[in-house]
Every structure is written in structure tokens, then in C-alpha cells.
Backbone:
């Protein structure tokens, strides 16, 4: 019998061979937003490794939407050509489906990379003016963003649309919009970061309005046969913030607009957050959203072992599991999970001779 983790899964016209997803992981290695050899190696290694799906790091829809000077983007012809090269490499040699995460960092933009401390850029470090729903900084010492006006909102939405068109041209099989981790679209959802007095602020319906408009606009240009989903933080982990119950409402609205899956993460909107990190700590939220909104969900967060991932899928708490740090630690995680669970999984042709069954005594 096929183990649940290695059961195929269909999303629109895309057939995933198993339920394992390589979660987006910023590399802070791009130049002017363009991918380079680092990305070829980073995504290329996962493309060999037989997860069902590999999702790129947050790929920003504008230069001001980047977290750092070194973040990946998809807002210029050069960015498109550079990412195309990486995708062609993954297609030519790899065995996985490829997804892209489209993102805008909002008020968390214009900072140093985590390796350099992650703090806001100083005046002599080419900082830029950040944008957000309201002119409220992420925390003490952070840049105060400019509140987006009507024109700014239209522009940000069009940037998501333009990047989605580029991603479709490059040939990504799937896309997800980043509506989590305290970045621009999440900032609209949360009453902590969104204190607007217009139709984009106030009630839950108003706070959801801009992310839903962006989703709808992207869905309209994203090819009909390809899945489009959303990564959302199910809670801010702060009193008075965005809640799991609101996430369920958001999921229902997204589903009505043709959203194919929700990728359930949490937190990162407010430095006061208290996250009870533990194995599978976001799985209860994924389960709740799946049960109450009737949508396909991906769970992420400290899913590290094959049997843990298998149990999450087998118990129906999530349809897909996304894995980040354990994948960086072991890019062949899916091969090893397959072996542990007695399953077969695809090997890139050039690597077939390393399967232990053909050489190990
Ligand atoms: C180096 C690194 C970069 C990350 N970059 C992104 C990103 O670009 N977009 C995103 O949604 N999450 C990002 N994350 C979060 C991961 O996708 C994932 O949600 C988180 O690490 C929890 O999963 P894990 O316990 O399997 O690592 C990043 C995590 C790491 C470790």
C-alpha cells in the first residue's frame, strides 16, 4: 500500500507525485533582484531531491518590496531572464514541480540580511522609504512606513499582477502569494498594523479587502490550469492581533475567488509575539482551516521527521507538508523519507546509481 506521504495529489491541472514541499527560503544572495549561480545551486539541489514541489524564496514584486538589498525579485526583464535560467536548469536536470512565492515586504523592507543582524538600514546604507497600510513601524527603531494611498494601492496590486505574468511566462507550475510573516499583505489583515479609517481598515471584511483584491487580480492573469495559493499567518501570537477564526473567514473568501490551497504559517507581524515553538506547532491551525473552510492546506513549521510528516497527512490534518530547515540540512530529505517508509521516489537520471539498492552491500 502506498504511504499517505507518497500519495499523489492534484491541484487544478498539476499532479504532484507526493505531499512533500520544499518551503520558501530567502537566500539574500540576489543582485538588483536577479537570481545568480547561488540560486541555481540552491533550487537545483532541491530539484534533484524528489519532494513533490519546490517553492522559491520570497520573490519580490518591486524593488521597494524587497526585504534587503540582496533579496530576489521579479520586477524587471533582467530579473525574469535570470530566474528563467534557474528554472530551465531545474527542469532540465531535476524531477520536481516548481512553484514561486510572490511577496512584498511592506514595512519590514529596507533592512540588513539576518546574517548581518536583520536591523533597519542606516542612512548611509542606501535605505528606502517603505510602504504599509498605516504609518506604523514594525517596532522601536524601525523605519516608519508611508501609508499607501489609493494610487499606491493600485500600483502595488499591479506589481503583483506584473510579476505573476512574468512567473507564468517563465513556466512556474504553481504560485503562492505571501500573506504572512508580517509583510505587506499580512499588514493589511492585522488590526495591529492596519489602522486605516477607509474601506481597507476597521472590520475584518475591510482588512481582508486589499489582499483579496490582489488575489483576484493575480488569479485573473495566472493561467487557469495552474494552481494559485496563499501563505497566511494564522495568528499574530499577540493579544489584539489577527486570529485563527479570521483566518478561516479569509480562507472561505479566498476559496470563492478560486484559491487552490492555503499554506499555513504563523506570526512575525509584531516583535511582542510569543510563539510556543514545538514540533508541528502550526498543524492545529492548518487542521482548523481545512475543517472549517473546506480548503486544501499545507502545514509548515518544525516538521522534521518522515513519520511525523506521514502522520500529519495520514490523519487528514493537512494535505501537504512544507519543510524548510530540515531540507537545507538534508536536501535529499524526500529520498530518505521514502526509504524509511518503504516507498519508491523519483531520482534525477544522473543520480540513479546512488540508490542504495543498486550498490550498497
Ligand atoms: C533561511 C530561511 C529563509 C526563509 N525564507 C522564507 C521566505 O522567503 N518566505 C516564507 O514564506 N518563509 C520563509 N521562511 C520560513 C520557512 O518557509 C518556514 O515557514 C519556517 O522555517 C518553518 O519551517 P521549518 O521548521 O521546516 O524550518 C524562511 C526560513 C528560513 C530558515
Residues:
Amino acid at each position: 500500500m502506498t504511504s499517505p506521504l507518497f500519495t499523489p495529489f492534484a491541484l487544478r491541472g498539476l499532479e504532484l507525485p507526493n505531499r512533500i514541499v520544499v518551503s520558501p527560503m530567502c537566500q539574500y544572495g540576489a543582485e538588483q533582484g536577479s537570481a545568480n549561480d547561488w540560486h541555481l545551486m540552491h533550487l537545483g539541489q532541491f530539484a534533484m531531491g524528489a519532494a513533490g514541489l519546490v517553492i522559491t524564496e520570497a520573490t519580490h514584486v518591486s524593488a521597494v518590496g524587497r526585504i534587503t538589498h540582496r533579496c530576489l525579485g521579479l520586477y524587471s526583464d533582467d530579473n525574469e531572464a535570470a530566474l528563467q535560467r534557474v528554472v530551465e536548469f531545474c527542469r532540465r536536470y531535476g524531477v520536481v514541480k516548481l512553484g514561486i512565492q510572490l511577496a512584498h515586504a511592506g514595512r519590514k523592507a529596507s533592512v540588513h540580511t539576518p546574517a548581518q543582524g536583520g536591523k533597519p538600514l542606516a542612512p548611509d546604507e542606501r535605505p528606502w522609504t517603505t510602504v504599509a497600510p498605516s504609518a506604523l513601524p514594525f517596532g522601536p527603531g524601525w523605519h516608519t512606513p508611508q501609508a499607501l494611498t489609493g494610487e499606491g494601492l493600485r500600483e502595488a496590486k499591479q506589481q503583483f499582477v506584473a510579476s505573476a505574468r512574468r512567473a507564468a511566462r517563465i513556466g512556474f507550475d504553481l504560485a503562492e502569494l505571501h500573506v504572512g510573516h508580517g509583510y505587506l499583505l499580512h499588514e493589511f489583515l492585522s488590526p495591529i498594523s492596519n489602522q486605516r479609517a477607509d474601506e481597507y481598515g476597521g472590520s475584518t471584511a475591510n482588512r481582508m479587502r486589499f489582499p483579496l483584491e490582489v488575489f483576484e487580480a493575480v488569479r485573473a492573469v495566472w493561467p487557469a490550469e495552474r494552481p494559485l495559493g496563499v501563505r497566511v499567518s494564522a495568528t499574530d501570537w499577540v493579544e489584539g492581533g489577527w486570529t485563527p477564526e479570521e483566518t478561516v473567514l479569509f480562507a472561505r473568501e479566498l476559496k470563492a475567488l478560486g484559491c487552490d490551497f492555503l499554506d499555513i504559517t504563523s506570526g512575525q507581524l509584531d516583535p511582542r509575539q510569543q510563539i510556543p515553538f514545538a514540533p508541528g506547532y502550526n498543524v492545529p491551525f492548518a487542521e482548523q482551516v481545512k475543517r472549517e473552510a473546506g480548503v486544501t492546506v499545507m502545514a509548515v513549521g518544525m516538521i522534521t521527521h518522515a513519520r511525523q510528516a506521514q502522520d500529519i497527512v495520514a490523519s487528514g490534518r493537512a494535505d501537504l507538508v512544507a519543510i524548510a530547515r530540515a531540507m537545507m540540512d538534508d536536501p535529499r530529505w524526500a529520498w530518505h523519507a521514502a526509504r524509511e517508509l518503504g516507498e519508491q521516489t523519483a531520482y534525477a537520471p544522473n543520480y540513479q546509481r546512488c540508490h542504495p539498492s543498486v550498490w550498497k552491500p
Notes: The CA atoms of residues 252 and 294 lie 8 Å apart. The chain has a mean pLDDT of 97. The first strand starts at residue 9 and ends at 11.
